[in-house]
Every structure is written in structure tokens, then in C-alpha cells.
Amino acid sequence: MPQTTPRSASWNYGGDRWKLSRSKIENFLECPRCFYLNNVLGIKRPSCPPFNLNKAVDMLLKQEFDVHRAKGEQHPLQKKYGLDARPVPHEMIDEWRENFKGVQYTHPKTGLLVSGAIDDLWQDGTGNYIVVDYKATAKSEPVTVLNDDWHIGYKRQIEVYQWLLRRNGLKVSNTGYFVYCTGRPDEKAFDGKLVFDVHLISYEGNDDWIEPTLLKIKRTLNAKKMPKAGEGCEYCGYREMAKGVEG
């Protein structure tokens, strides 16, 4: 149900339930004003319909990789791409995957509790941990590269997870992977099933931007004045246009 009133203060910055999630960091980078409204004043952006199909794909992938994790063996996709890695049976994997928990770290300079729920964690032959994220979409051609402008959010997602795991003492590879499932909309018949092409897409992460971003976030959260809107923010643009019509 859409939010019509500000939420409880305990879920806002300074409240006992508030954390700086990976998605909130992305929200700040997109639009500091929306971030301030959400986290300081408790007014969220209008919600989008839930991506239930994507969630179902995520769950099925986790179950599938967990079978090979329990056996201590490679998944066929890892073999197909010649990757020297296996799903790792880390004792924290279940908590690190759980929404509202995830991997957590309190940033010393700001006191911000940063969190993010990973999809999967692999380990290569040298002991480095590998961050893995699952993605699903439907296109006429399978997704094999991430070169659209909006893919920057996916890449930052991997980098936040890498940063969090390193702060939890893990030796993490700069190379992360997307298990990208593309549904085929051009099959001859539906027959009660959706066929996917599954590709493994590598990405070389760099988390250097996270530290300065956290400092900016802290200043924004403590500011007495609402920050400017992000360039091209459609939510703020709508609010300004609506004000002009009303006035």
C-alpha cells in the first residue's frame, strides 16, 4: 500500500532501526534531495510494483547454487566459463543474504552502519572471495555485456558488497560476476514456462568512491537545509511541475 504519511521516526536517521543500506547509497547518488526526504523526514518516493518474477529467479538460482555448495563442487555455469571458483559454504552466507540484515559494517569516521544483502559468494582457487549478483530480464537478445548508462547502478552494487566484505576481514577479488538470465520473448509457444539464456558477466570493481561518498552522506544527513535535487530526477521534477500547476 502506498505511503501516505511519514513513517515512524525509529526508521529514520537517528532511529534505532535505521541503517544505511546499499540501495540508500544508490538513492543518494541519484538524488540527494530524495535521499534527505526519505531518511531524515521519513517521506519515501512512490513505490514501484514488486518484481516478483525477478525474485522467483533469484530464489531458484540460490537453491541451485546451494546444491553445489553443499557438495563442495563447481556449478555447471562455472565450468562452462572455465572459472576456477566454487560456491563457498561460509558460515555467514545465510545472514549475509537476508534482507534487513546482510553484510554489515559500522564506518568509524561517520558512525554510519552500512549494510547490503548479497546474492551469492564464491571462492577462487587462491582463496579470494568473489561477489556474485543475480539479474533477470526479458529481451529478444541475451544480455552479455553491461554497457548501458543505467548499468552503473549494478556495478556500484557489486562494489559496495566488495567493500563491506573487505571490512569484515575477507580477502575479496576485484572481479565480481553477474549471473544474468534473459527470458526469451520470441519462443514459438509459452507452454507454461519461460525459457532463459543464462550468461556469466565479469566486472572489475573499484570501491575507491565509497569512502568519500559516506562522508558526503553524513554531511547531508546532518544538514539543516534540504539539498538540491539530483540532475534529471523524475520524482523531483514531477513535484516541481505539480507545484506550478497548483500555484
Short description:
By secondary structure, the protein is of the alpha/beta class. It folds into 2 domains: 1-48 and 209-247, no CATH class; 51-207, no CATH class.
What is the residue-averaged pLDDT?
Answer: 93
Number of helices: 8
How does the overall form come out from the CA principal axes? globular
Main sheet makeup: 5 strands, mixed
Helix fraction by DSSP (H/I, runs of at least 4): 25-40%
- Radius of gyration (CA) equals 20 Å
Beta-strand content estimate: 15-25%
The run of helices and strands is EHHHHEHEEEEHEEHH
Distance between the termini: 29 Å
List segments where confidence is low: pLDDT < 50 over at least 5 consecutive residues. none
Structural class: alpha/beta
Number of domains: 2
Number of E-type strands: 8
What's the arrangement of strands in the largest beta sheet? 2-5-6-7-8
Structure commentary:
With 247 residues, this protein is α/β, with parallel strands linked by helices. Helix content is 36%, strand content 19%. It has two domains: 1-48 and 209-247, no CATH class; 51-207, no CATH class. β6 (129-138), α6 and β7 (175-183) form a beta-alpha-beta unit. A five-stranded mixed β-sheet has the order 2-5-6-7-8. It has a three-stranded mixed β-sheet with strand order 1-4-3. It contains eight helices and eight strands, in the order βααααβαββββαββαα. α1 (22-30) packs across α2 (32-39). The longest helix has 20 residues, at 52-71.
